[in-house]
Amino acid sequence: MHCPRVASLLLPIAPLLLAACVSAPPGPVAAPPATDRPPAVEGSTASPPQAPQGEAARVPTTPLPPVPAVPPRPAYPSEREGVATLLRLIPPSAQDRQGWAEDIFRAFAALQLPPTREHFCAAISVIEQESSFVADPPVPGLGRIVRSELYKKAAGYLVPTVVVDLALLKRSRNGLTYGQRIDALRTEREMNALFNEMVAELPEFAKALGNKNPIRTGGPMQVSVAFAEEHLSTHTFPYPRHGAVRDEVFTRRGGVYFGIAILLDYPANYPSMLYRFADFNAGRYAARDAAFQAAVARLSGRQLALDGDLLRYEDGKPLKAESNTEAALRSIAPRLGLSAADIRRDLLLEKQYAFAQSPTWSRVMTLADRAAGRAVPREQMPQIRLESPKITRKLTTEWFAHRVDGRWQRCMAR
């Protein structure tokens, strides 16, 4: 093999291989806009569901869960008052506590979230867990991780390691080779900047990737970039924008704003903040939907993964292919008095509050209560193992939720 020639041929795809190796722990599933609320009934033109026949006609319908009550809001505290409260709650070890307190309160004010001690501590606890109050947290051994994943990807194309190394000898804008810059990487923000430069320098690389940046999460709360972009389609960013939405995710103010939005800016009937922490890791309503899966599994006699995803997804979009949960529901459709189309219609609401008002949810939970002789749980910890080259031990959504909840308990005691 003539290595210099092979290396020159590999140069255009080397960044592609690099991008493919970038790792990020599974972030929150891209959620629907945070303004989704249970639809109003008055004036609705939707046809009422048909009365079920046969056995299903004898299945009583569980009353719809009430919309979480929103008590009359007192006058919103001033920034000075809110920041003073936050300074009493933020861990003493955090650097620039004043700056963090200001960014947290401004996010609450922009989203008009109730500025309660419980909510403040929820945001503080997630920040502490995800970044230890470091705006752009370093990833230990990021350069090594990137190279290792690059070599694995190259091996899939039968490209030897030595050829990859030769390809990475190409000089970048700052005079260093791409290989040197990979080895010096410390944070995801740096990796994001390196990607942007490579897009400009190697347009064929961007085209090969469909112009998609491989960095999916970032910032002090490890927020999904897809969620941030979708959120701004219905909300106004409370700060002057500098660059793309994804660039704001990597800042302290932007990361805090989007993180608090996905954590708190949606209605839920959870009895404990623990399940919001689970949702933050696994996707909105994952804890509710995992409980629904458990009920479906008991009624159908089928083993289901209790991961909170009722449908199959690709790039955040539901696929037409039937999921195991949907198949299990279809197997008990006669007992539910629902058609396959009815079930599919309702499952498409799984990332919204409205799913808990659907006929599918209501009839499944009613039958599950009857079978168990008691009310079965309406929330359950999603069983998801977190996988990423950055994770070197067995971690799960349950571990994450309990870890954050422990921090929340300590914050509440401060």
Write up what this structure looks like.
It is a single chain. The chain has a two-stranded antiparallel sheet. A two-stranded antiparallel ribbon has the order 3-4. The protein has a two-stranded antiparallel ribbon with strand order 5-6. The protein folds into three domains: 3-27 and 139-213, no CATH class; 97-137 and 219-266 and 394-413, no CATH class; 283-393, no CATH class. It has 20 helices and six strands. It has 414 residues and is an all-alpha fold. β1 and β2 form a beta hairpin. Residues 28-75 are annotated as: Disordered.
The H-and-E topology, N to C, reads as HHHHHHHHHHEEHHHHHEEHHHHEEH
Termini separation comes to 66 Å
- What's the number of structural domains? 3
Unreliable stretches, pLDDT < 50, 5 or more residues?
A: 1-13, 15-57
Rounded mean pLDDT is: 83
User: How many strands, which pairing sense, and closed or not: the largest β-sheet?
Assistant: 2 strands, antiparallel
Shape: globular
Secondary structural class: mainly alpha
Q: What Rg do the Cα atoms give?
A: 24 Å
Q: What helical percentage do the residues reach?
A: 40-55%
**Quick one: how many beta strands?**
6
Strand order of the largest sheet: 1-2
Percent strand: under 5%
Number of helical stretches of at least 4 residues: 20
